[in-house]
Design goal:
Endonuclease III, domain 1, single chain, 2 domains
């Protein structure tokens, strides 16, 4: 590990000590039993997040569910600050229609199997979004959520050599395994590490 990587790791360790209790509280929130509406909210949030700001996405979800919107054009109106709003409005309708069936299927599945099932059965969801959803509803704390913030830091820490232009399932799992191995090496659980690196980039522990 080079000097820059050692300095970054030191910075991350210090930040972890500062934010550890907050991160643990957030993880505890994820673990709490959730109603179907709360789980649906997390799913819609994860559908909206690609290339969009998390706060805007959560606000849109609260509006959609709070107003009990079910029509595509109504949902699209709530996505004005979200990229690819036309596609995502369709994905939300699809998720709402299939949610009950899917949540019952994945409740008792191992985390990686549940992720595969979600990716295959919910439109607009890839490995990152499925991992994010499963983490947020407390069904999987052992999966990596490889967004741009995480990938950037993994590269800077020397965990990966480069940020891939795209993430195939094979490449995703390869990087995920490296992140999990790194988390063990630095004694920071992978679910904590995800929130920590996200906090480092955004200044907050959110979702």
């Amino acid at each position: 590990m080079g000097v820059l990587q050692e300095n970054l790791l030191s910075e991350i360790r210090i930040l972890y000590e500062e934010r550890k209790e907050e991160i643990e509280r957030r993880i505890d929130d994820f673990k709490k039993e959730k109603s179907k509406e709360e789980m649906l909210a997390e799913l819609l949030f994860c559908i909206l997040t690609p290339q969009s700001k998390a706060r805007f996405c959560w606000c849109a979800v609260e509006n959609i569910l709070g107003k009990k919107l079910m029509k595509e054009e109504e949902i699209r109106e709530e996505l004005k600050k979200i990229r690819f709003k036309n596609k995502k409005a369709k994905y939300i309708i699809n998720a709402m229609e299939n949610f009950d069936r899917i949540i019952e299927k994945i409740r008792n599945m191992p985390s990686m199997e549940a992720r595969e099932y979600i990716v295959k059965n919910i439109k607009g969801i890839g490995y990152k979004e499925a991992s994010h959803f499963l983490r947020n509803i407390g069904l999987a704390l052992d999966l990596a959520i490889l967004d741009r913030h995480i990938l950037k830091n993994l590269k800077n820490l020397g965990v990966i050599d480069e940020i891939p232009k795209s993430l195939s399932p094979k490449k995703y799992i390869e990087i995920e395994e490296k992140m999990i191995e790194f988390s063990k090496k630095v004694s920071i659980p992978v679910a904590h590490l995800d929130l920590l690196l996200w906090c480092k980039e955004t200044g907050e522990v959110f979702k």
